[in-house]
Design goal:
By secondary structure, the chain is mainly β. It is built from 3 helices and 14 strands. It is globular, with a radius of gyration of 20 Å.
Length: about 220
């Protein structure tokens, strides 16, 4: 590290071991049905039961972010018409966990404008099939290993590259806490070792909730 880079750092960086997190990538999914309380979806990505994921709905040039917990998941297979190719798909039931009044009103408006068929009635409300299921995406987690961290950023190691200056939502596990962070990829360097390719990635924190900043400060103080 050059003297200039050291001078640029506002906060001390700490070397850590044994901590992991996730880079969240927006992935396509198929919405089978949806209501104000949850949805049934189909995706090529495996989803873990009882894990929470973030779902993004694009509606009238606005992104609605919803947290949802997987309450059930089944592995199935789908074939292309006129082809013998079989693709594994996962069907899952999602229960939304952060529907507040503002988000609920926006979700209701989205469903009302896009519904094409009323399906079965449930305790939480009526389920609908929608016309634009591609409007809904899932932030799917890809694991990273934490190497260094400060109040302003971190150095992580991954099995996949990330483009410099791209922005991602991130999860960072610190003990029993999971921090939700927005970050910018500052640099990405390829590492070749023992026929295994990994990537060393520097991430600048661009947004952290106040409560998560306190948790991070307490963690760094403990080091």
């Amino acid at each position: 590290m050059t003297k200039r880079n050291k001078e640029k750092r506002r906060y001390k960086r700490y070397i850590v071991d044994g901590f992991n997190g996730n880079v969240l990538h927006l992935s396509e999914l198929n919405v089978l049905n949806i209501s104000i309380d949850g949805a049934a979806i189909e995706t090529t990505k495996r989803l873990d039961v009882n894990r929470e994921y973030t779902f993004k709905i694009v509606y009238k040039d606005t992104a609605l972010n919803l947290r949802g917990r997987v309450v059930w998941a089944l592995l199935s297979y789908k074939g292309k018409k006129g082809s013998e190719e079989i693709t594994p798909v996962y069907r899952a039931g999602i229960m939304f966990t952060d529907i507040l009044s503002e988000k609920a009103n926006m979700l209701l408006s989205f469903i009302e404008e896009n519904k094409i068929k009323t399906l079965d009635k449930r305790l939480g409300g009526v389920r609908f099939k929608i016309a634009n299921p591609e409007s809904v995406k899932i932030n799917y987690p890809y694991k990273y290993e934490l190497k260094k961290i400060s109040l302003s950023g971190m150095l992580v190691e991954t099995d996949y590259p990330l483009d410099p200056n791209s922005h991602y939502d991130l999860e960072l596990g610190l003990g029993e806490h999971i921090l939700n962070i927005e970050g910018r990829i500052a640099h990405c360097e390829k590492i070749d070792s023992d026929n295994i390719t990994k990537y060393s990635i520097g991430i600048e924190f661009t947004k952290i909730p106040d409560n998560d900043i306190k948790i991070l400060k307490d963690f760094l103080t403990s080091l």
